[in-house]
């Protein structure tokens, strides 16, 4: 009976800590990031975003309410088509917002129209590189070519002490069938997918060099990528000081 009671207490402790982490490090952080990003947006801006990000959706929704003349270009790519969900949610919350939807192979045509690029991130590494959904580095490279500010909205809990300079040392692989099939139907390459000498890599994330990133918008401040090690060190010290032992 005592062991059952201790197990229930442990479960409740984990649930309480997860709820506290979500409210303090995610929900509250997104609110602050949204306000800081709004300060960077002007009324006549044309903003490019890539894929789907909850914090970017929040920023654009608030910006559309504040700036009626704002325009957004959503860039999307296979195989997940996350931009479709971004477009759907954005148009549902802001029906009057001027939106365009293009695929990533058209990025060179729409980038000259943009005044800013706003994207989310999967992680910010200790060497200042930004890991995000596959295709982000291509968008950042094109923004660099056309001198368009490339801003990354990222909570500090995503800052990682790991270092990486490419997408092959460590990554996640998705289902290869997503690349071979089109709209859940067999594509023109499906018949060669079973060949033993063919390896189909559905890489989920890529790494953007810090030279391509204008700034990181976090809940603490708008910082350059070179400040990532400082944020990681302060975060580690904070975690040690505020560590709560389980009683």
What does this entry show, briefly?
The chain is α/β, with parallel strands linked by helices and 247 residues long. It is built from seven helices and twelve strands.
The assigned structural class equals alpha/beta
**% residues in beta strands:** 15-25%
Give me the strand/helix succession: HEHEHEHEEEHEHEEEEEH
Number of beta strands: 12
Mean pLDDT: 85
Uncertain residue ranges:
none
Textual characterization of the structure:
With 247 residues, the chain is α/β, with parallel strands linked by helices. Helix content is 38%, strand content 18%. The protein contains 7 helices and 12 strands. It has helices at 2-38, 54-66, 82-93, 107-110, 136-145, 177-180, 228-241; strands at residues 46-50, 71-76, 98-103, 116-119, 123-124, 130-133, 150-153, 181-182, 185-186, 205-208, 215-217, 222-223. It has a 7-stranded mixed β-sheet, with helices on both faces. The chain has a 3-stranded antiparallel β-sheet with strand order 5-6-10, covered by helices on one side. A two-stranded antiparallel ribbon has the order 8-9. The protein starts with a helix and ends in a 6-residue tail after the last helix.
């Amino acid at each position: 009976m005592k062991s059952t009671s201790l197990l229930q207490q442990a479960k409740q402790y984990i649930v309480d800590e997860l709820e506290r982490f979500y409210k303090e490090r995610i929900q509250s952080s997104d609110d602050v990031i949204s306000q800081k990003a709004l300060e960077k947006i002007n009324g006549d801006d044309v903003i490019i975003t890539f894929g789907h990000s909850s914090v970017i959706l929040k920023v654009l929704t608030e910006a559309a309410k504040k700036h009626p003349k704002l325009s957004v270009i959503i860039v999307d790519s296979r195989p997940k088509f996350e931009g479709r969900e971004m477009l759907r949610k954005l148009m549902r919350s802001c029906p009057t917002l001027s939106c365009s939807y293009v695929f990533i192979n058209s990025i060179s045509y729409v980038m000259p129209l943009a005044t800013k690029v706003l994207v989310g991130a999967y992680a910010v590494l200790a060497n200042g590189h930004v890991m995000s959904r596959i295709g982000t580095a291509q968008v950042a490279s094109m923004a660099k070519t056309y001198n368009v500010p490339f801003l990354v909205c990222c909570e500090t809990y995503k800052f990682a002490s790991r270092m990486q300079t490419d997408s092959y040392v460590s990554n996640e692989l998705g289902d290869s069938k997503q690349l071979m099939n089109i709209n859940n139907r067999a594509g023109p390459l499906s018949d060669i997918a079973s060949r033993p000498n063919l390896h189909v890599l559905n890489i989920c994330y890529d790494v953007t060099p810090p030279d391509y990133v204008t700034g990181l918008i976090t809940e603490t401040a708008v910082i350059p990528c070179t400040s990532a090690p400082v944020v990681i060190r302060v975060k580690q010290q904070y975690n040690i000081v505020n560590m709560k032992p389980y009683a």
